[in-house]
Design a protein that fits this description.
single chain; alpha/beta; 4 domains; 5-stranded mixed sheet; 17 helices; 14 strands; about 15% strand; binds uracil
C-alpha cells in the first residue's frame, strides 16, 4: 500500500491520528507514504492511499502526543511525513523521546516550539472590533489576523473560553474561526472582510502609551516579543516608532525626577524613634505606629527611611496585603501611594470597592532595595525578613479582624498562608490563613505593570479587578450574615 495521504485543513489533528494509527497497524513504512494537506497540488502519479481498517491501539509517550498535537499545525509541508517517520521509529525505539541527541526529535521540538510561539502571539495580538449594533442581544466582534502557522484551530478554544459570552470571528487568509451562540466552527478561505474602526482602538493606543516605560526600552527584545509582522493589524503599534524615538529623552527626564536617597537626617530621626519605641507592642492602635517605627527585628530597618504601617479603618471587613513599601511609600510613610498603588486604585475603582473602606498594608514594613547611582531599586524580601515581619502583620490582623484578607502576590501569600509558590495557579482561590481566617490570593499590581505584552496586562488587570470585587462581595455577604 503506497501513495498519498491527504489530510483535511480543519479537524486535521483527529484525521492525522486516525490515519497514522491505521497505517502503523497495517505496517506501512514511512517511505511508502507521502502526507499532505488539502492545499497541496496533486502530483501526476499520486494515488490516494486508503486508510486501512481494523487499526489496533497504538501507545505513545504522552510527550509525543503533546508534541504531535502542536507540530501538526506547523506550516512546513513535510510536517506529517516527519511525524509519521518519527512515530514509526518510536514503535521500535521506545526511549526515543528522551534521546536529546536525536536529530529528528530536535527538529520536531523546534517545530513544536514555533507553533506554541505562534499560538502565544495570536492570543496576545488579535484585536477585535465590534460589529454589532448597540441594541443587539449578544455582542459581536471580528478580527483579522495573519498567523505564521496554521494555529487558528489550535488556539480557538482559548478564545471560546475567554470570550464565551459574545459572538466573534477571527478571519485569517487560511482558516477562519467563527463562534456563534456558544458554538465554534471553522470556515476556509473567507475573503478578508472590511472591518469597521472601533472605539476600543483609542483605548489600546492610550493604554499602550501609558504602559510604555522608556527607561526599560530594549528595542530588540520588544520586537522579538511583538514582531513587526503583526504591527499592521494592531492599532497601538502605530505609536511605537514615535515612542522609541522619544525614549532616551523621557528616560533622562525620569532619572532626573527620580527620588534621591533619603536625606542624611533620616538616620537621626530613625535613631530617636528607635530609642523612644517600646521593644514590644501589644496595645491599641495608637501605640502601633510608634512601636513599629522602632522595629529592628531584621536588617531592613537600616536602609529604609521609615517603617510603613497599614492604613484604613480599624473596622474594615477587607484587608489587602501587599509585599513591602516601594520607593515613594518609604518616603511618604503610607502604603500604596506609588505606581503600583495607582494601578491598585484604578482596579479598586473598576471593582466598585471604595479604598476608604479597605485596610491596606504590607507583609514587610520596611523598603528593601539596592542602590544604582541615585536610584533605589526594589528587591524582593527573603523568607527570614518575611518571617520577622509577620509579627507586625499578625498584630494588624488581630486588631482589625477582617472577614477576608486579599493577598497580592507571592510575598503576601507566603506571609499569610506559609506558601508563596504558584500564585498564577492559585489566584482567585480562597485559602485558610495562618491566623485561621479566609485568605484570597491575587496578583501584585507591580507584577502586572512589568508584563510586557499589553493584552496580557489587560487580562491580568481584569483578573485583579475580579478578585477585588469577589473579595469585597464576600465581605458584604459575610457582613450581612454576621451583622458587621
Ligand atoms: N507595593 C507594595 O506591595 N506595597 C506598597 O505599599 C507599594 C507597592
Amino acid at each position: 500500500m503506497t501513495g498519498r495521504v491527504t489530510l483535511p485543513r480543519t479537524g486535521t489533528e483527529a484525521a492525522w491520528r486516525r490515519a497514522a494509527r491505521g497505517f502503523l497497524s497495517a505496517g506501512v513504512p514511512p517511505e511508502d507514504l507521502r502526507w499532505t494537506d488539502a492545499t497541496a497540488p496533486q502530483g501526476l502519479f499520486d494515488n490516494e492511499a486508503d486508510v486501512p481498517d481494523g487499526a489496533r491501539e497504538i501507545r505513545v509517550p504522552r510527550a509525543f502526543a503533546a508534541m504531535s498535537n502542536a507540530v501538526i499545525w506547523h506550516n512546513d509541508a513535510d510536517r506529517f511525513d516527519r511525524l509519521y517517520a518519527f512515530l514509526w521509529r518510536l514503535q521500535r525505539e521506545p526511549g526515543l523521546m528522551r534521546d536529546r541527541g536525536d536529530v529528528q526529535l530536535a527538529h520536531l521540538r523546534r517545530m513544536e516550539k514555533a507553533v506554541h510561539r505562534c499560538k502565544h502571539k495570536m492570543k496576545a495580538f488579535v484585536r477585535f472590533r465590534e460589529i454589532s449594533a448597540p441594541q443587539e442581544g449578544r455582542r459581536q466582534f471580528a478580527a483579522w489576523f495573519e498567523p505564521t502557522h496554521h494555529t487558528v484551530e489550535f488556539t480557538a478554544t482559548f478564545f471560546a473560553r475567554r470570550f464565551a459570552d459574545m459572538d466573534w470571528r477571527i478571519y485569517t487568509p487560511d482558516v477562519s474561526a467563527i463562534f456563534e451562540d456558544g458554538r465554534l466552527r471553522f470556515a476556509l478561505d473567507v475573503p478578508r472582510p472590511e472591518l469597521p474602526g472601533d472605539a476600543s482602538e483609542d483605548l489600546w493606543v492610550t493604554y499602550f502609551r501609558n504602559i510604555f516605560n522608556p527607561a526599560r526600552l530594549k528595542v530588540q527584545a520588544m520586537q522579538s516579543e511583538m514582531p513587526k509582522k503583526y504591527w499592521h493589524n494592531m492599532p497601538e503599534a502605530a505609536s511605537i516608532p514615535e515612542l522609541i524615538a522619544e525614549a532616551p529623552a523621557r528616560a533622562r527626564a525620569m532619572a532626573a525626577a527620580a527620588p534621591t536617597l533619603p536625606p542624611v537626617r533620616t538616620a537621626r530621626v530613625q535613631e530617636v524613634a528607635r530609642a523612644q519605641a517600646p521593644d514590644h507592642w501589644s496595645g491599641p492602635r495608637e501605640g502601633f505606629a510608634a512601636a513599629l517605627s522602632g522595629c529592628a527585628r531584621c536588617p531592613l530597618h537600616r536602609g529604609a527611611t521609615q517603617a510603613v504601617p497599614g492604613a484604613g479603618p480599624e473596622t474594615a471587613a477587607l484587608m489587602i496585603v501587599g509585599e513591602q513599601p516601594g520607593d515613594l511609600e518609604d518616603l511618604q510613610g503610607r502604603p500604596f501611594v506609588g505606581p503600583a498603588g495607582q494601578l491598585l486604585d484604578a482596579a479598586l475603582a473598576d471593582a466598585g470597592v471604595p479604598r476608604a473602606e479597605v485596610y491596606l498594608t504590607n507583609a514587610v514594613k520596611h523598603f528593601k532595595y539596592v542602590t544604582r547611582g541615585k536610584r533605589r531599586i526594589h528587591q524582593r524580601p527573603n523568607t527570614s525578613e518575611i518571617d520577622h515581619c509577620r509579627w507586625w502583620l499578625e498584630a494588624e490582623l488581630a486588631r482589625v479582624r477582617p472577614t477576608v484578607v486579599l493577598a497580592l502576590g507571592a510575598t503576601a501569600a507566603q506571609a499569610l498562608t506559609g506558601e508563596g509558590a504558584g500564585i498564577l495557579q492559585r489566584r482567585g482561590a480562597t485559602e485558610r490563613g495562618r491566623h485561621g481566617g479566609a485568605v484570597m490570593i491575587s496578583l501584585h499590581p507591580a507584577h502586572i505593570l512589568r508584563v510586557p505584552v499589553p493584552a496580557e496586562q489587560v487580562r491580568l488587570r481584569r483578573a485583579l479587578t475580579d478578585d477585588l470585587a469577589a473579595a469585597f462581595a464576600t465581605c458584604r455577604g459575610a457582613d450581612a450574615r454576621i451583622g458587621r
